[in-house]
Amino acid sequence: MAYQVRGRDPLFDSNMQAAIEKRGKELAGLALVVLGLMAAAMIGSYTPDDPSWLSATDAPVKNWLGRLGASISAPLYMIVGLGSWGLAVVLVAWGLRFALHQGEDRALSRVVFAPIWIALASVYAAGIAVGPTWPHSFGMGGLFGDMMMGSALGLLPFGAGFGLKLLMVVLGLGLLALGAFVTGFTRAELGNIARFLLVGLVMVYATLLNLLGRGAGNALSAAQGLQAAHSERRARRAEEAAEAAAWAASQQGAVMPEAVQAPVTRVHRAAPPPAVPPAPQPRLRHPEPELDLDVEPMGLLDEDDAPQVWTPQLQAQPQAHHVKKPGLLGLVPALIKRADPMPEPELYAPHNFEDYVDPPGEDRIRAKIADVVKARRRVQPAFAAAPAYDPTKPLTKGRGRGPDPLIYRAAPAAAGPMRAEPPVTAAQAQPAQRRTEPPLTAARAAVPPVAPVGPARRDLPPAPEALRPEPQQDWAQQHWPEEDGFAPEAGWLPEPDLPPAPPAAPVQSYAAAPSPVLERPRAVPPAPVEEDLAEEEGYDDLRDFDDYGDEDSYGYREEEEDDLPPLPRAAESEPVIARRAPPPPPEAMPPQPPRPAARQEAPAPRSFDARQVEYELPPLHLLASPEHIERHILSDDALEENARMLESVLEDYGVKGEIVSVRPGPVVTMYELEPAPGLKASRVIGLADDIARSMSALSARVSTVPGRSVIGIELPNEKREMVSFREILSSRDYSDGTHKLPLALGKDIGGDPMVANLAKMPHLLIAGTTGSGKSVAINTMILSLLYKLTPDDLRLVMIDPKMLELSVYDGIPHLLSPVVTDPKKAVVALKWVVGEMEDRYRKMSKMGVRNIDGYNGRVAEALKKGEMFKRTVQTGFDDETGEPVFETEEFEPKKMPYIVVIVDEMADLMMVAGKEIEACIQRLAQMARASGIHLIMATQRPSVDVITGTIKANFPTRISFQVTSKIDSRTILGEMGAEQLLGMGDMLYMAGGARITRCHGPFVSDEEVEEVVNHLKAYGPPEYVGGVVQGPDDDKADDIDAVLGLNTGGNTDGEDALYDQAVAIVIKDRKCSTSYIQRKLGIGYNKAARLVEQMEDEGVVSAANHVGKREILVPEQ
Q1: What φ, ψ does residue 18 adopt, rounded to 5°?
Q2: Least confident piece of the model among 233-247, 684-698, 1018-1032, 1048-1062
Q3: Closest Cα to residue 702, out of 726, 722, 682?
Q4: Can you give the residue ranges of the FtsK domain (predicted)?
Q5: Neighbours of 569 (CB within 10 A)
Q6: How many CB atoms lie under 10 A from the CB of residue 317?
Q7: Does 943 carry a binding-site annotation?
Q8: 1090 and 1067 in contact (C-beta within 8 Å)?
Q9: Which of the pair, 433 or 1064, is modelled with greater confidence?
Q10: Residues near 984 by Cβ (< 8 Å), separated by ≥ 6?
Q11: Which residue of 6, 461, 550, 950 lies most exposed, with the fewest beta carbons within 10 A?
């Protein structure tokens, strides 16, 4: 049984729904019209000075829609230029269509093409000549229009002028056609619009002709009426004269002379005038302005001349009917009457110099303005006499045809007092003094703000026409005052010579230098300058070092000088500066135990074996003494002044902050900036080049200080101080014995020694350009190891493809093999190191230890007890009982020394055997730490093909010297900064955790290296280990290649099994092809092809014939 469902009546009927839909479309149309008008207002009121996404300014917003309108109109103008007006046109057009219900159903299909129309309008606008008021560097079509117009002109085979005209015509027609399509017009609508315009034009034309014809007809009727009345009067007068003459003849019989003459006289007086009266006296009149009509103008009569104008046609056709009264159009002759005749200007009119300004030479602007002027001349009154030109009177903009100038040339304003930039270093040499971290807590010197100097921009009236500006010339050729507005501050005066002070107590030796302490400023007598000191003490030879003398090093050439007494301290009273504590008097100094590295006279002999009983560590006197190094220390006043000047420079760039501390060092000085709240560190870091320029420095490095809220700004000193290698080896950080593999890196920014432990790194990657100090740094690292460790504790493998840098160490007892200079042998040496690492891991696993230190500790205990290492190993099971059988293995305990592999140039090795080198380095970097094998690798080409991602991942500790670009700095360190280093040993040290520290490497001359090497060679020739250069035997070499994944020759066990399976398949199926083997075994194409080639070599299958088929040579089984 079916139930009929009653349909629910709709809430609104169809008429109400249609009405609601109609009203909704009307509201949507009104909203679109409002949006279009707002877009037009936004685009029309665009000003490039408004703040937007592309510019930041404090000026008030001039856009009618406020900051939002300025933010939207700026990118629109930059991208499409004047084409952005198309957006407003589309919105208004479709808003009207929705409001009027005309074609709203075509909206979606037409508006889709609106972006194309706007882009076409942008390209068309790019072809319009730019006027002087256009404020942008691009054309009126925006960046997109300029790009597309340039591309189109480049593709056309015509010249630029003809091509531009052709493009403008084509683009104009396309713009009109596409614009009509986008705004929703159809052919019918366009036809209706064309008909309406045509009919309207015809109607206007006919109405004009009708008005002119009706006025002429009325004037003609009036003239005909006057002519008829005058003819009647003349006929009546003739009749009266005839009647009078007849009456007089009949009345008088005799003719008297007087009586005869009288009527003749009357008749003569009563005679009618001629048909065409004589022309009146000519007036001085100028013809009236002509009307541009196609019809021939009829005679229009002035009010004064109408009674005097007579034509023969009017006499022949008298009007008998009543003359109509002229209407409004009949009064045209009276309306066009002028009181006084005016001269009509033809082609020349005198210019009023008060009103005209000569415009720029754009033909388009001249043509448009000339049309307006001509139109005004037709209705303007008579010209007054041109006044005399007064050059002192400012020109007005009344009818000036030229636009107002965008930039006014103004006389440069008088510059205010400028701040003179003091040098970064002190002008005079101060006595030697040591300090580490001088915080600036004293009152700061008041630095006046720097006023901007340059030509002021003023709104001046435009220049008179007689003084037209000349063509624009290059800015570099204009005269700008340079020295008138620059005046040094009053405080910048030469400082007077300080009075001499008594000499201070002698400074203790470098080996016993105490750690720095903080002290309050004390009243210390001022110190003399070097000239006064030399004059009083008799030292007349205070010479500077010849810095950077050697071309392959970054150090200094030392000169022979007399030992000078230590200089006294300078007078410092105001700022609180971190100083080193003065040395205590000799009687108060506590006795200090001798340090291992400072044993120069009688070092204790160390015994390793019978061969090296008398081996001793190199003494420090083989290195150059730091006493002859000239110290360049800035005074506290100079540091305070530089800090205030740096604050002023940062304020000029909008960076607000305070310099809270200064860390002077031997090469650079770091100023710690406490930024204002909300200031990003990246903003200050990006100003590094500008800060260096403003401070007159070679370079500036800006970086954050780890663990602190300050930003470090590092500026180089005017005179660099040489970092002594001997001084670092004498420091407590190197000689305290905590570092197993110490590396003397140099001094940090504050001048404190930096010593790193290679055992914890565990590998080191060094990069830097040629001459940046990379090779010298490697020498210092090698000497650091040689001064600390004996041949029993350390063995070296040196690889030097350049054959120059490390060859000097050939023959020292620490070497495992001669210095490797052949890149092919370098691969063999690295493979031997990999094999040694595997052997060490096997030995440590037998002993149950985790690293080399635990293994050597067990060896020391066994040697002390005189025991052998024993190890119980299960060798099998008893055949009778089935119990496991154990055997005891004994082997001699032998100490394993550390092995440091040093590669001076890695790029040369990567070019020869990149895959093998990378595999060896990767294996060693991943696993060699526990076995006591460490890598130090250097390259002068830090590119991604040399320092691959695998190498970077396994070398967390890196050192970068000066590089050429930011890309190289990012490659080696992961961030910028290495390109701003000073070179000559200036480096960035990145330890684990990506902490970067700036360090200044010490200098070691070639003579010092040779002295140390000769001292080591005196203890006999080295004992080389076989196989390092020659390579291991074949079996071991195959094992090493297998470990490295380089085993490409021969089959492994797995490949042998695959080969057997492939042969069985071929014999069984009697088919052989690479794809068949690949499909059957489920292996790759390369492996399948290798198996087929192996079967061909062994005679299982034949070679492929001309169609690629192979015959099976093995009989069926």
Answers
A1: -65, -40
A2: 1048-1062
A3: 682
A4: 751-970
A5: 21
A6: 10
A7: no
A8: no
A9: 1064
A10: 548, 554, 555, 720, 772, 773
A11: 6
Place 300 in a pLDDT band, splitting at 50, 70 and 90: very low
Element containing residue 180 per DSSP (H, E): helix 160-182
Instruction: Output the DSSP codes for 350-387.
Output: ---TTT--PPPS-HHHHHHHHHHHHHHHTTS-PPPPPP
For residue range 461-475, list pLDDT tens digits in order: 444 444 444 444 443
Question: 745: part of which helix (H) or strand (E)?
Answer: strand 742-748
Highest mean pLDDT out of 127-131, 797-801, 981-985: 797-801
Annotated binding residue at 771? yes
**SS3 string of 724-742?**
EHHHHHCCHHHHCCCCCCE
C-alpha to C-alpha distances, 820 to 809, 904, 1028, 1061, nearest whole angstrom: 11, 11, 10, 45
Instruction: Please say if the pLDDT value at position 691 is more than 80.
Output: yes
Cβ pair 840, 847 in contact under 8 A: no
Angle 823-847/852-865 helices, nearest 10 degrees?
A: 60
Return all residues near 798 (Cβ < 8 A) that are at least 6 apart: 806, 809, 815, 819, 820, 902, 904
Asked if 914 contacts 824 with a C-beta cutoff of 8 angstroms, the reply is no
Question: How far apart, in whole angstroms, are the C-alpha atoms of residue 457 and residue 310?
Answer: 73
DSSP annotation of 52 reads -
What is the pLDDT at residue 505? 40
Q: What is the pLDDT of residue 705?
A: 86
Is this structure's pTM higher than 0.85?
no
Give the residue from 39, 30, 91, 83 showing the smallest Cα distance to 65. Answer: 39
Is 151 labelled a binding residue?
no
- Identify the helix (H) or strand (E) that includes residue 702: strand 701-704
For residue 659, give both structure tokens: 């310099």
Model pLDDT, residue 1030: 79
**Is 704 marked as binding a ligand?**
no
- C-alpha 294/C-alpha 715 separation (Å) is 86
Question: How many residues are there in the chain?
Answer: 1117
Q: Chain centroid to CA 783: how far?
A: 44
In the chain, the domains with their CATH numbers are 19-198 (no CATH), 622-721 (3.30.980.40), 722-877+889-1043 (3.40.50.300), 1050-1112 (1.10.10.10)
Helix (H) or strand (E) holding 663: strand 657-664
Strand partners, 704: 711
pLDDT of residue 650: 92
Identity of the residue numbered 979: E
Neighbours of 1013 (CB within 10 A): 20
DSSP-assigned letters across all residues of 841-906? HHHHHHHT-SSHHHHHHHHHHHHHHT--EEEEEEEEE-TTT--EEEEEEEE---PPPEEEEEES-H
CB atoms within 10 A of CB 289: 11
Residue 1031 in contact with residue 817, Cβ under 8 Å? no
User: What's the rounded Cα separation, in Å, for the pair 597 and 787?
Assistant: 7
775 is annotated as contributing to ligand binding: yes
Q: Are the CB atoms for 819 and 809 separated by under 8 Å? A: yes
Q: Quick one: average pLDDT of 749-761? A: 89
Is the pLDDT assigned to residue 89 strictly greater than 60? yes
Is 772 annotated as belonging to a binding site?
yes
Do residues 711 and 703 touch, judged by C-beta distance below 8 A? yes
The three-point CA angle 199-202-205 to 5° equals 150
Alpha-helical (H) ranges within 255-316 are: 257-270, 312-316
The tokens 């526990």 sit on which residue?
930
pLDDT (tens digit per residue) in 156-187: 888 778 888 888 898 899 889 888 888 888 88
**Segment among 36-40, 62-66, 105-109, 302-306 with least mean pLDDT:** 302-306
